[in-house]
Amino acid sequence: MSERNSGKLRVRFAPSPTGFLHVGGARTALFNWLWARREGGTFVLRIEDTDLARSERRFAEGILEALRWLGLDWDELYYQSERLEIYRRYAQRLLDEGKAYHCFCTPEEVAARLGRNRGLEYDGHCRGLSEEERRRYLEEGRKPALRFVVPEEKKHTSFRDFLRGEISFERLTTGDFVIMKSDGTPTYNFACVIDDHEMGITHVLRAEDHISNTPKQIWIYEALGWEPPEFGHLSMILGPDRRKLSKRHGATSVEELRAQGFLPKAVVNYLATLGWSPPGGREIWEPEELIQAFSLDRVVTSPQVFDLEKLKWVNRKHLSRLSGKELFDAARPFLEWLGGEALRDEGKVIKALELVVPSISTLGELVGNPDLEVLFRPPELDGAVLEELSRPPAPEALERLLEALPDAISREGLKPLVHRVAGELGVRPREVFHPLRLALTGRGKGPELASICEVLGREEVARRIRKALELLEKGR
Ligand code: GLU
Ligand code: ZN
Description:
Oligomer: single chain
CATH superfamily of the largest domain: HUPs
CATH class of the largest domain: Alpha Beta
CATH topology of the largest domain: Rossmann fold
Number of strands: 12
Number of helices: 20
Strand order of the largest sheet: 1-2-3
Number of domains: 5
Bound molecules: glutamic acid, zinc ion
Structural class: mainly alpha
C-alpha cells in the first residue's frame, strides 16, 4: 500500500456526467482532495452515470479532463454504469426482506397519485398489492420499479452534520421513494449508499443541496444493517447577485475558465477560499501549500459568492510568479494566432510575454493583443502616424538614432542614447522617444520602450526605423 493510502480517511467526489464540471462541483472535488491529501487518505472519483437519459460519455471525459487540468488526481475511479449488478443484488435483498416493494404505476399514474397525497408524495398505492393484481399488471406487460418503504413516523428525523451540527426535519417531504427504476437502473440515493458503503467511504463531503437526501440515505443504510459514513455539507456558491450561480453569471464551468486563460493553480487557489477561511487571511497559495494548511475547522458554511474579478486578481498574482519557461508553456495555446514562425524563438517569446503579461488578467487576453503583436510583426504606419512623424524634429531624430544605434541594444542603453540625440538636436527627450515609439509600434502608447527595443533586437529596430524614414521620404 502506498503511503498515501495508509491513512484511514476515505472521501469521494461523485459527479453526474450531465454537463461540464461546474465551479461548484470543482470546489466540492477540491475540498475532498485537499482533505484526503492533508490526512494521507484516499480520494475516490465516482462517475454517477446510471441516469441513462441524462448522462453522456463526453461529459464524463470532460470532467476527468477538467480535474486533471486542475491537478486534482484521484486514487480510485469508478463508473456506476459498470456496477449495475451490485445495485440489483442489494435491491433484491430489500425486496426479499419486505423493505422495498414493486410499484407498477406508470409515470402518469404516479403524477396523479402525487397530487392526491400531500402534494408531493407517492401514496404507497402498490405497497399492498395482492398476488392477483401483481399478475394482472405483469400480464399487461408493465415493468415494476422498486420503492423503498418509508414509515410515516420516520419522517420526523435528524442527523449530525460534521460541519453544521444537528440538522432536523419536522417532517421530511417524501413518500416511499424509488430505488430501482423500471429499466433496472438504480436511482441516485440508492446507488450512492451502496457505493459509499462498498467503497468504504468514511466521510461524505458534498454541497448543501443534498442535505434533504441525507435522511433517505441513512434509512437505506439502516435497512441494510450498515453503519452510515459521516456527512458534511458545504455551502452553495452564489453569483454576485446572491442568487444560485448559473450560466447567466458568465463563465461557471472549469472548461470555460480554462479556455479564458486562467491558470489551474489560480482556479484552485480561488476555489479553496470559497468556503475555507485561510489562516492569517492570506490570499495567494500554491496547491502544495493549500494541502499543508487545509483543515476542516476553517471550513465555513455561509454562502459564498463567486466573484470573477477576484479570480482575475488571483490569476494575475499567479501569472507574476511564473518562470519564463512556465509562462511560455501556459501561454502557448493562446499564441497560435501569431503563427509558427513567430513562436520558433522561445527566448524571444518569453521576453515578449514578460513584457505584456503584467498588464493582463487572463492568458486569453493575449489573443490578438496589439502590444504583443507588434513585437512579432512590423506595424502598418497609417496616415496619421506618418503625419506625426513628418513633423520636426521627428525625421531628424530617427535618422540620428539610426546612425547611433549600438550593435546590441540593451534596456539600460536606450535612455542615454535618446538623451544624447535629444541633446544634439536641442529638444526634450520626449520628442525623440515619441517618434521612436511610433516608428517601432505604430502606436502612441504601450509597454516600456526600452523593453520593446530589447525584445525586437538591434536589427529589427534599425529595420523599422529605416522603413519609417523611407515612407516619410516617399510621402514628401
Ligand atoms: N451525483 C451527485 C451530484 O452530482 C452526487 C452527490 C453526492 O455527493 O452524494 O450531485
Ligand atoms: Zn405504484
